[in-house]
């Protein structure tokens, strides 16, 4: 049998089946052993390719793209440590339920564990952080093997998407020579008419009897909370706020819940809870009778303290598929159902719960006090990390995406992002909550063509500066709001801040870098702002610019910490005074 023909037909059938199964975007990191995969993807008429040299950056780029498009993206790399560099993004994808199809090329079996170059043990390399692993056979032109290749490709796309989405890993060994022959007749095989594996994934809902049991039980209560954690269902906001309005219950909406932005009813939405739940007195006074939480645990640590303070309160967590996300460890009843459908089914029931109207009013009053202080807070005209978020949300275009970094960036978004009629999708890497790969993730989301803004801190930017190459290579439009406090600002809010002798070295970690050099190297536009007016003008200008635009806000970690705490103290003082 001719080796090149077997290699070509095997790889072509595999890649063609990925396309037939709905996978259209592939992020490739160049290498030798992955030549058959990379060249075949480039040849396929339905595949769009993105070349990202660094594997860590490539995997996070694909992660951001998959989050934006809500469908699987494939990543391809060569053998050896290239595959290991995918690991951080795969961990994040698994934890945040993002579909990736990971294709690692490998040495053939006779070159493993014999000291051959660029050879490591790639079998189950990512351990429990993938939904499925499969070691592919060596290429063969036998029809049964071609059918097998198609079956595994189709299964990979399906498995990455079904249930709780996540990454899958296929390891593909290849012998040399590695270059396919694309002149062969019937290159893509005989399956062009349809994909090999087909599945219908229905939407879950609970039946009328279960709904009646739930509502009968809740009707015995007076003070309930609806909590919306991170989730990506764009249809959910209208359903949950309609239900809350009918039941007259407050909705604590995480910034990543997609509930703070949009045209839906928002009178019951409470977005300032992170600020006033910092008060232990208020947390204890506002004890609910039950909590219904949709999606993952909210970003807010004061909310975590709140549920820990009330560990005996009945809690229901609604997840669309089976899984366990309850870090407080409280007693919980899980409801596995489509969130939107559950809200609509509850709305359709002929019941009028007799909940305490004063309860909602109290949450609304506290929310108004918090918003008054947070939105009117100033620091002598200088831009603070909080006001940066406030001005960003005023200027950010409608129908766009905000990708937010971890540490202080997402927490400031939680505090200062108030409800808006704009349609803004909020994305973040909140599975493992790392600061690595954020630039690449933002660029992956922006590469889809949707207007995108990336908000992140200086250490996150530093960790992934080489990700900016994709912006230059593909002329991707992205506005980056870079909050530079010369180090790890979040540690100033933690107990480590009291360890004066070691704090700067171990936690503050000042870098003293001038980021303009890196931004210029990658062809970006850069502007430093220090006051509110300049920030507003710089943001407006950045959205008119084609390509990479970085608006850098320089702040001081110590004064930022003091400014935040001053606002929290004012809010607590007014609320406790008004009792």
TrEMBL record:
Domain spans labelled Thiamine pyrophosphate enzyme N-terminal TPP-binding: 13-124
Q: Which cofactor does it need?
A: thiamine diphosphate; Mg(2+); Mn(2+)
Cofactor annotation remark: Binds 1 thiamine pyrophosphate per subunit.
Pathway listed for it is: Quinol/quinone metabolism; menaquinone biosynthesis; Quinol/quinone metabolism; 1,4-dihydroxy-2-naphthoate biosynthesis; 1,4-dihydroxy-2-naphthoate from chorismate: step 2/7
What Enzyme Commission number(s) apply to this enzyme?
Answer: 2.2.1.9
Chain ranges of the Menaquinone biosynthesis protein MenD middle domain: 220-404
Q: Where would I find the Thiamine pyrophosphate enzyme TPP-binding domain in this sequence?
A: 439-553
State if Glycosyltransferase is listed as a keyword.
Answer: no
The protein's matches in Pfam families, at most eight in alphabetical order, are given as: TPP_enzyme_C, TPP_enzyme_M_2, TPP_enzyme_N
Gene Ontology biological-process entries? menaquinone biosynthetic process
Q: Where are the transmembrane segments?
A: none
* Keyword terms, alphabetized: Magnesium, Manganese, Menaquinone biosynthesis, Metal-binding, Thiamine pyrophosphate, Transferase
Against CDD domains, the record matches this protein to: TPP_PYR_MenD (cd07037), TPP_SHCHC_synthase (cd02009)
Top-rank lineage group of the source organism = Bacteria
Q: Which molecular-function annotations from GO does this UniProt entry contain? A: 2-succinyl-5-enolpyruvyl-6-hydroxy-3-cyclohexene-1-carboxylic-acid synthase activity; magnesium ion binding; manganese ion binding; thiamine pyrophosphate binding
**Matches recorded under Gene3D superfamilies:** 3.40.50.970, TPP-binding domain
Catalytic activity as recorded in UniProt: isochorismate + 2-oxoglutarate + H(+) = 5-enolpyruvoyl-6-hydroxy-2-succinyl-cyclohex-3-ene-1-carboxylate + CO2
HAMAP family registered for this protein in UniProt: MenD
Q: What assembly does the database describe for this protein?
A: Homodimer.
Role according to the record: Catalyzes the thiamine diphosphate-dependent decarboxylation of 2-oxoglutarate and the subsequent addition of the resulting succinic semialdehyde-thiamine pyrophosphate anion to isochorismate to yield 2-succinyl-5-enolpyruvyl-6-hydroxy-3-cyclohexene-1-carboxylate (SEPHCHC).
Similarity remark: Belongs to the TPP enzyme family. MenD subfamily.
Q: What is this protein called?
A: 2-succinyl-5-enolpyruvyl-6-hydroxy-3-cyclohexene-1-carboxylate synthase
Species name for this entry? Virgibacillus phasianinus
The gene that this protein is the product of is menD
